[in-house]
């Protein structure tokens, strides 16, 4: 008797199978505009596939929603002057160091919140994410978050509306961009807020969150596996005297705005080039000497 053949099991570690899935998703998307073509590099498609367990239909739906969001929100067109007021206290910035794998590190300090604008905070978050992607070295897709809860109280907690939109943007429009997030010295009162935030997070994201306490040697060792203590600022138990300087950081962001604009110029013929699987969203831009976001005082 004839037997029905079972579909072969997909192996995400198999380069040929991954490429076949990426090509299948690319074909399923159909014709794309110049900007969407640039965004939908092979590496980008792989991230959306990974986020949906390599299911073509679900990945396509997720990606199409992101393309709609990007077309309306235009995150790549946000420029520093528009969001600089949000950065004046150093509540979120790209660190002047990388982790042990060369990945971008974003430092956040919720206690340094300086505005009450929901839209302003969201646009600043998106700008910072786009800039972090811009600074990723070739072959790297993920970034590291270091969230400092020193001085944080419930009075600093973002409104649920902002927290919900933040998690939606991170999970649905920047999938597989987070390598690990360190929550540094969160107070006891944060546990109640964390229970609310966890409700909006998927299990994979929750697994990437590490609670780290300065007086807990074992938890510090976890962070040191990712970040060399030599480059960590002293406030995180490291040996670096680097501090956030808003004027210097503004100069850095102004220079990076120029790079961002040149990459996303839709008239450029390179917009129509199909990118290789190892390329990042911002190909051929590694921002070598502009990595110093905070310098020694």
TrEMBL record:
<dbReference type="Pfam" id="PF00650">
    <property type="entry name" value="CRAL_TRIO"/>
</dbReference>
<dbReference type="InterPro" id="IPR036273">
    <property type="entry name" value="CRAL/TRIO_N_dom_sf"/>
</dbReference>
<dbReference type="Pfam" id="PF03765">
    <property type="entry name" value="CRAL_TRIO_N"/>
</dbReference>
<protein>
    <recommendedName>
        <fullName>CRAL-TRIO domain-containing protein</fullName>
    </recommendedName>
</protein>
<dbReference type="InterPro" id="IPR001251">
    <property type="entry name" value="CRAL-TRIO_dom"/>
</dbReference>
<dbReference type="InterPro" id="IPR052578">
    <property type="entry name" value="PI_Transfer_CRAL-TRIO"/>
</dbReference>
<dbReference type="InterPro" id="IPR036865">
    <property type="entry name" value="CRAL-TRIO_dom_sf"/>
</dbReference>
<dbReference type="InterPro" id="IPR011074">
    <property type="entry name" value="CRAL/TRIO_N_dom"/>
</dbReference>
<feature type="domain" description="CRAL-TRIO">
    <location>
        <begin position="82"/>
        <end position="244"/>
    </location>
</feature>
């Amino acid at each position: 008797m004839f037997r029905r053949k079972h579909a072969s099991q997909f192996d995400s570690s198999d380069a040929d199978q991954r490429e076949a899935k990426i090509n299948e998703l690319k074909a399923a998307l159909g014709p794309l505009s110049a900007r969407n073509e640039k965004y939908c590099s092979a590496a980008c498609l792989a991230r959306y596939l990974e986020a949906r367990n390599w299911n073509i239909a679900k990945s396509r739906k997720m990606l199409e929603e992101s393309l709609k969001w990007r077309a309306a929100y235009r995150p790549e067109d946000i420029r520093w002057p528009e969001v600089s007021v949000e950065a004046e206290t150093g509540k979120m910035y790209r660190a002047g160091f990388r982790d042990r794998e060369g990945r971008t590190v974003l430092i956040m300090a919720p206690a340094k919140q300086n505005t009450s604008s929901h839209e302003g905070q969201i646009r600043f978050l998106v700008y910072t994410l786009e800039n972090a992607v811009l600074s990723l070295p070739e072959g790297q897709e993920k970034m590291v978050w270091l969230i400092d809860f020193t001085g944080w109280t419930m009075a600093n907690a973002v409104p649920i509306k902002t927290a919900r939109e933040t998690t939606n943007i991170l999970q649905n429009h920047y999938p597989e961009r987070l390598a690990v997030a360190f929550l540094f010295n969160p107070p006891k009162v944060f546990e109640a807020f964390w229970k609310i935030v966890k409700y909006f997070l998927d299990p994979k994201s929750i697994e990437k969150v590490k609670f780290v306490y300065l007086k807990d040697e074992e938890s510090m060792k976890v962070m040191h596996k990712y970040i060399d203590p030599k480059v960590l600022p002293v406030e995180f138990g490291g040996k670096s005297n680097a501090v956030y300087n808003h004027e210097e950081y503004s100069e850095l962001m102004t220079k990076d705005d120029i790079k961002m604009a040149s990459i996303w110029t839709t008239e450029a013929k390179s917009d129509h080039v199909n990118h290789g699987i190892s390329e990042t969203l911002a190909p051929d831009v590694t921002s070598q000497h502009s990595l110093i976001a905070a310098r020694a005082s």
